[in-house]
Amino acid sequence: MTVEVNGKLLDTDEEGYLSNLEDWSPEVANALAKQDELELTDNHWEVLNFLREYYKEYQIAPAVRVLTKAIGKKLGAEKGNSKYLYDLFPLGPAKQACRFAGLPKPTGCV
């Protein structure tokens, strides 16, 4: 599978995660969100940037429970809860957000 960004085809796995994490850019995130019929807002970007920083530090994409707790610590309780995150990423805050952020599929995601 592929995603087209600025006329360039980027390889993805069968679930839409980038094959090469170095291919990621904000334009890639927007293209992947468009495939899911979402438009990324500042709130989405706050989570995506958090995920990219988390991955850079720990070399792992967090599962939803870990993500929710970590977001709550950094961004506050009003954002560190499942309802808020599912409102932003209806297909799963860890799974869908990690895909948009150019990260591998989180551990423990089916």
UniProtKB/TrEMBL annotation:
Q: Which residues form the active site?
A: C109 (cysteine persulfide intermediate)
Q: Which top EC class applies here?
A: transferase
Q: Which GO terms describe its cellular component?
A: cytoplasm
Whichever gene encodes this chain, its name is tusE
Q: Which SUPFAM superfamilies match?
A: DsrC, the gamma subunit of dissimilatory sulfite reductase
Can you name this protein?
Answer: Sulfurtransferase
Keyword vocabulary terms for this entry: Cytoplasm, Transferase
**GO BP:** tRNA wobble position uridine thiolation
Query: What top-level branch of life does the organism fall under?
Result: Bacteria
Principal subcellular localization = cytoplasm
> What organism is the protein native to?
Beggiatoa leptomitoformis
The EC number of this protein is 2.8.1.-
**Pfam families cross-referenced by the UniProt entry:** DsrC
Task: Quote one Gene Ontology molecular function term.
Answer: transferase activity
Family stated for the protein in its record: Belongs to the dsrC/tusE family.
Lineage of source species: Bacteria, Pseudomonadati, Pseudomonadota, Gammaproteobacteria, Thiotrichales
